[in-house]
Amino acid sequence: ISLLDLALGMPKAELHIHIEGSLEPELAFALAQRNGVALPFADVDALRRAYDFEDLQSFLDLYYACAAVLRTEADFHDLMLAYLRRAAADGVVHAEVFFDPQTHTPRGVPFATVLAGLESGAEAARKESGISTRLIPNFLRHLSEEEGFAALAEMAPFIDRIHGFGLDSSERGHPPSKFERLFARCRALGKPVVAHAGEEGPPAYIVEALDLLKVARIDHGVRAVEDAALMARLARERMPLTVCPLSNVRLCVFKDMREHTLPALLKQGLCATINCDDPAYFGGYMGDNIRALQAAFDFDASVWYRLARNSFEASFVDAAQRAAWV
Ligand code: HPA
Ligand code: ZN
After folding, report:
1. Which positions are annotated as binding substrate (predicted)?
2. How many domains is the chain partitioned into structurally?
3. Alpha-carbon torsion, ordered 83, 93, 263, 277, to 10 deg
4. pLDDT tens sequence across 81-121
């Protein structure tokens, strides 16, 4: 068995996947037709040609435009089931899935509809492959604190069906400190919180996410390598980083996969994990990330085992479930 097949077949968790970012062009056009919604592209090929990003914002503009085709419970079911089938095929046995309520509720799609569709898609996938799922709504950081509190109020009746809260969207100019009070409220509800930090933003944003938001994981965090004291702290605290290699290359965080800082993070003892972020837009799923890393770095088996163990250690499953996997 090759190292690549070993890595692909190894049971693992995926902890950083935006379900709206798994909307493939074919499904986007099918849903646009089903719902009578227009997409600003002539066809699947024209949309795919637009997947040429220079930074995070240029991606987000397209990601939010395409999300407009998601309207019904069935749409969210289909989206979730399609992603989880792809994940299971790459050895993912557990996925903690992000979604963006504030992208849907202002368009008149109730939170209850989004949640019910994602849950039923997850249940269908569980019956097929056994894959388990947790749902983590993200707050959009380009919106205000007040809008974040309004989104949280809308989710409150469903709190038992939510497994944590996150923070995503445009990082630069929207530091974690903007959401200190909102995240305190989320933690008071008994939920773990996570935040995107140090993707495009500076290492100081990672420090804010730790100290002010009191996150259980950092999403991305690859710019931590610019701050030696922060690196030492992340290693000491075993603070997980959900790293997304293909995403970072597609959004020009790194010019080339060979410049990616994942090997440095691992070498310094950080709990780094690998994830697909927005697989429809960034060149693929867990397996595609594994193939790209192996081509760039030729990791040995111990690295792949380490990454898989880190993914379970960083997950929100209980200790008994974790022990069954590790
Ligand atoms: N970064 C920030 N926000 C996002 C991303 C990302 O990679 N994907 C979807 N929303
Ligand atoms: Zn992300």
Report:
1. 278
2. 1
3. 20
4. 999 999 999 999 999 999 999 999 999 999 999 999 999 99
Task: Answer whether residue 112 is part of any domain.
Answer: yes
Place of tokens 């395409």: 66
Q: Which amino acid is at 79?
A: L
**Whole-angstrom distance, CA of residue 7 vs CA of residue 2:** 9
Ligand 1 neighbour 103 (Cβ under 6 A): no
Backbone angles phi, psi at 253, to 5 degrees: -70, -35
* Catalytic option among 119, 199, 200, 208: 199
CB 196 within 8 A of CB 167: yes
Global pTM?
A: 0.98
Q: ipTM strictly over 0.85?
A: yes
Q: Is 199 labeled as catalytic in the residue annotation?
A: yes
168 lines ligand 1 (CB under 6 A): yes
> Which sign does the torsion angle of CA 302, 303, 306, 311 carry?
negative
In a domain, residue 290? The reply is yes
**Residue 169 Cα: closest atom of ligand 1:** 3
Minimal CA–CA distance to 176: which of 138, 150, 231?
138
Report yes or no on 55 lying in a domain: no
CATH code for the domain of 165: 3.20.20.140
Phi, psi values for residue 200, rounded to 5°? -105, -25
Candidate of 104, 169, 282 to mutate for ligand 1, largest count of ligand atoms within 8 Å of Cβ:
169
Domain range holding 8?
A: 3-24+72-315
Quote the CA–CA distance of 18 and 20 in Å, as a whole number.
5
Read off the pLDDT of residues 78-91 as tens digits, 9 standing for 90 and up: 999 999 999 999 99
Contacts (Cβ under 8 Å, ≥6 apart) of 136: 96, 97, 98, 99, 162, 163, 164, 165, 166, 194
